[in-house]
Amino acid sequence: MGVNVTDSDKTQEEEQQDLPKVVLFRPPPAFSLIGEESFASNKFHFLKTYDSQLPLDQFLSTHSHSIKAILSSGGAPVNADILQLLPEVGVVVTTSAGLNQIDIPECRRRGIKIANSGNVYSADVADLAVGLLIDVLRKVSASDRYVRQGLWAAKGNYPLGSKLSGKRAGIVGLGNIGYEVAKRLEAFGCFVSYNSRKKKPYVSYPFYHDVCELAANCDALIICCGLSDETRHMINKQVLSALGKEGVIVNIGRGAIIDEKEMVRCLMQGEIAGAGLDVFENEPNVPQEFFAMDNVVLSPHRAVFTPESLKDLSQLVVGNLEAFLSNKPLLTEYVDSE
Ligand SMILES: O=CC(=O)O
């Protein structure tokens, strides 16, 4: 007489074996920041390539028929080489705001959907962009250092900063984040204009098709776009010189959107007035020249992270994966940006 194994007889491990697999190539920063358990579900099981001794291609080939989805985070590329080893994958869900690690055309070609982080980070990133701008203009961090070093008493007043209200703010990339930055700066009394791949029908801010022209017509350039072949080093010598001696740049997008060497040179030679930077070309390495510059405010790529936004992220990631696995529409399907 055969023995019937019912679901209740199965161990937790056996149950997990039966679940569709979601592969990860590196732990998303959110796992250590709010705990991996926040991303758990009884509808799927994570397979971590970084926990295996096997070479990546061997690991992926071994599990290729059970891997239905990829959970991607910044850094580890999801490219054609990886995707061709995973024929059953139908969705890439990302924990990052940026999508530059994903080969989007290859996903399109293979009919693989992409779920992005939607709006979960937009308010936090926009807040930090405005914070960096205020800090650079009003010298908040530099004045703090001055006071702590006892220089106020020893040397007298610190040089004046400049006013935010009334400034012309140029937003590069009017996606979710750029739009939140624009709304905030408008509320601070700034005159907002923008550059984007396409003019946005839902805003009345002046649109500049040419980023150089935008730079020439603003006091602060705020980089909010994603990194792509099109935007890599888009902020080059010409754009920085159009921004000019009184101009300030803020970058919360990706480091490589700005030609960093050129920006360092412009700052050293006083060709632009200051910078507020959350992202860098070669993170976590930051050009040493910045350390001595009081007109530069540095942040260690933290714009997206607050416990609140990470909690929203975990719900969104689980929601997207569960939706995909139940043939329901994704919560935040990426269609096109900016
Ligand atoms: O920069 C951070 C992100 O893209 O999530």
UniProtKB/TrEMBL annotation:
Its EC number is 1.1.1.79. Residues 44-331 form the D-isomer specific 2-hydroxyacid dehydrogenase catalytic domain. Keywords: NAD, NADP, Oxidoreductase. InterPro entries: D-isomer_2-hydroxyacid_DH, D-isomer_2_OHA_DH_cat_dom, D-isomer_DH_NAD-bd. One of its GO terms (cellular component) is cytosol. Pfam families: 2-Hacid_dh, 2-Hacid_dh_C. GO terms for biological process: photorespiration. It comes from the Eukaryota. The keyword NAD applies. One of its GO terms (molecular function) is hydroxypyruvate reductase [NAD(P)H] activity. Residues 130-303 form the D-isomer specific 2-hydroxyacid dehydrogenase NAD-binding domain. Belongs to the D-isomer specific 2-hydroxyacid dehydrogenase family. This is glyoxylate reductase (NADP(+)). The lineage of its organism: Eukaryota, Viridiplantae, Streptophyta, Embryophyta, Tracheophyta.
